[in-house]
């Protein structure tokens, strides 16, 4: 499925006219989920939520404001996603969803305040998207006046890197933005965020769009048998350093990871193809030299060819055994599924 998510610090939801303006933006962009920060409402009501959308099939969760400070509201169209669980943090609320169309499970976190590592520690290990007002900028260039980099900015950047989050390019982005894990981005062929006009509030609404959902495509899987190929590590280094991407460090990492996965899929198809068919062809070579040897003695060159044929067959048997051992869930958990996060941890020391 394609997805549209809106994030907006509206500076309060108590004004009826302001709610109508928010409703017009939600309706115009046909968003599937919208996250409102700084609601300034101690208790969110069904009536206020309904006034933000003309749709009938709306569900919501809220982090109430403390006095007139803060507050986060997440609303979504139940025809697009269903909620499985939710959890409140000090400055955030997180919802675990299952997409109605494809059954994909993922987590969205709405934030008004600083991002911390604990946000991830208390959440589920699912593809993760965050949106909101983080109360700090990330880069010096995002300042209206080019002042020095602060300790808060450094800490924010470090947490993004520690959590392995992708920071999408955004023209004119300041305190408001979306972040996501590579596994969330992998659900779509393209992901982008953009700033919308602001009919109310001094904050711009930010729209995140995930397009070209990867329906039916096989997920990336690191095959342990690749490590048995001579020169595989050098291939990885060459492919990685040959990918040139511009942008923030987290964005470059995410894009290069996605490109590398596609290269590995093609390489796997070209080099390994069908394991059973390759094994069968190798066995035919062994049988051929056995039949030749039964009719006459083999020359030294032919004996070497027979030896190569047997070694080739043994290679494909080992490859196939490694592949099927990895597909066993018990062995998979013991030997490690090098997908996305764990694949990155394996890859980084190699590519430097």
Can you summarize this structure?
With 352 residues, the protein is of the alpha+beta class.
Explained architecture:
This protein has 352 residues and is α+β, with helices and mostly antiparallel strands. The chain has two domains: 3-213, Deoxyribonuclease I, Chain A; 218-352, no CATH class. The chain is 40% helix and 22% strand. It has eleven helices and twelve strands. The strands form two sheets. A six-stranded mixed beta sheet has the order 3-4-2-1-12-11, with no helix packed on it. A six-stranded mixed beta sheet has the order 5-6-7-8-10-9. The radius of gyration is 26 Å and the shape is elongated. The two termini are 36 Å apart. Mean pLDDT is 82; it is low at 329-338.
Number of helices: 11
CATH architecture of the largest domain: 4-Layer Sandwich
Give me the Rg, rounded. 26 Å
* Span between termini: 36 Å
Strand order in the largest sheet: 3-4-2-1-12-11
CATH hierarchy class name of the largest domain = Alpha Beta
What is the total number of structural domains?
A: 2
Under CATH, the homologous superfamily of the largest domain reads: Endonuclease/exonuclease/phosphatase
CATH topology of the largest domain: Deoxyribonuclease I, Chain A
Mean pLDDT: 82
Structural class: alpha+beta
Number of strands: 12
> Major β-sheet, in short?
6 strands, mixed
Please mark out the parts with pLDDT under 50 across 5 or more consecutive residues, or reply none.
329-338
Helix content: 25-40%
Strand residues, percent: 15-25%
SSE order, one letter for each helix or strand: EHEHEEEEEHEHEEHEEHHHHHH
